[in-house]
Amino acid sequence: MPDLTFETALHARGLRRIAGVDEAGRGPLAGPVVAAAVILPRGFSCPGLDDSKKLSASKREVLYQRLIGDGGIAWTVATADREEIDRLNILRATHLAMRRAVEALDPRPDHCLIDGLPVRGFPFPHDAIVKGDGLSLSIAAASIIAKVTRDRLMREIDREFPQFGFAKHQGYGTKAHLEALRIHGPCCHHRRSFQPVAGL
User: Fold this and answer.
1) Which CATH number fits domain 5-184: 3.40.50.720, 3.40.50.10780, 3.90.1150.10, 3.30.420.10?
2) Does residue 200 register a pLDDT over 90?
């Protein structure tokens, strides 16, 4: 289970505000990529808080409400939309969403813990932690907020384009989604730079 080991080590160096940063939606064929930045209070505890991918949708919703309802937690979300993903590529668009999320924190963090690999040119001091959402409690919290936010956005898109089933697969390339793409062609939310959308 994730804990505060990384955060505590940074606090020991005199850094006060440590932001965990994670994203949701790099792999789907449609929709935005969503990033969240979360600063937890020292000594924070939340039983069951873990990497969002390890949790059921109902459990994520419970944890999401717990996190956003805690006045001691600073958090923000930001997106990079489909046009930005196609123009920049998914990696750079993900980093853009992460930067937007961190820049929206007020006050800004002293240091960031980012899930994954180092982010070149990121305008904040940071440590990159591979599989950080399963190691750092701050990153785990960011993963929950990013994932729940994106799932809600995809349910909104589903109401606009129900023929694709976005509420069920969140834009991932499932068999049902690929069949709907074959029948209907891509909509305005599909990523034109991703296969098989590009081929259609």
Assistant:
1) 3.30.420.10
2) no
